[in-house]
Amino acid sequence: MTEPTVNEDQNPLTKPKFIISAVVVAIIVALGIILALLPKGGGNPATEPSNSGSTSASTQPSAAAAASVCGLPSGDQAKPATTPTDTKWELVGKIAAPTSPTQFGPGKTEANGLRSCFAHSPTGALYAGANIVILASSGHNDLVLRYLTVDSPERDKMLGSSSPSGSSGGPSFQLAGFKLTDYTGDRAVIEYGFKVSNGTFGSLPVVLQWSGGDWKAVPPASGQPEGKQLADLSGFIPWEGV
Fold first, then answer.
1. HSE-up of 109 (CA within 13 Å, CB side)?
2. For 60-85, what is each residue's pLDDT tens digit?
3. CA distance 59 to 76
4. Which of 35, 105, 139, 237 would be a feasible disulfide site paired with 225, CB 3.0-4.6 Å?
5. What span, in angstroms and rounded, lies between the C-alpha atoms of 24 and 13?
6. What is the model's pLDDT at position 3?
7. DSSP secondary structure of 44-81
8. What pTM, to 2 d.p., does this model score?
9. Number of H helices, E strands in the chain
10. Parallel, antiparallel, or unpaired: how do β-strands 187-196 and 173-183 relate?
11. What is the rounded distance in angstroms from the CA atom of residue 39 to the CA atom of residue 225?
12. Helix (H) or strand (E) holding 205
């Protein structure tokens, strides 16, 4: 697709101080503290498991720890290296959310909009993070904080100031791809890529932890989520519903 021509002197997206695109700002505001920074501390991320069918014992969840709140099987523990082929899509507000109710999740969808119960696997984490981002960006921030966020002082602090999320009047966005950068059995780090209606692209990392039989977002102790504007989605595995 041909990119629109813009005047760089007039376009704020080209100015150095404008670090992230308008849609990523909207996502960050919507998610608040539930989206985490990539791990800090100076160390390198744990070695990523192979994308082959085999999985090391260190990343294979035990039967007790893997138990899903709605009985979804853990399934394949290999990181997805291609677009999940059996994904179906449902609109949450105006954003298409991935769904695979009997395999990866959400295994439970409530009348109030809550989408929960994801498989204890890399692909289950992929579905969980996408649904969390989309829920919180579609007017369900309070539900995400209460039920899909790891218990912590940061979460409790956000609950006291939570308000309905979602933006109006600005550019809309859709999930378009992912990079599963780290997976260690009970923890996943996933970067999601987004297409924006104004022709730009953005990405946002999400850290997830297996807790209480489901994947939940990890609140950062401090700092801001590292959302950023991208020239394109090169390097992302395509994954989109619209």
1. 14
2. 555 556 689 999 999 999 999 999 98
3. 11
4. 35
5. 12
6. 46
7. PPPPPPPSSS---GGGS--HHHH--TT-------SPP-
8. 0.75
9. 5, 10
10. antiparallel
11. 11
12. strand 201-211
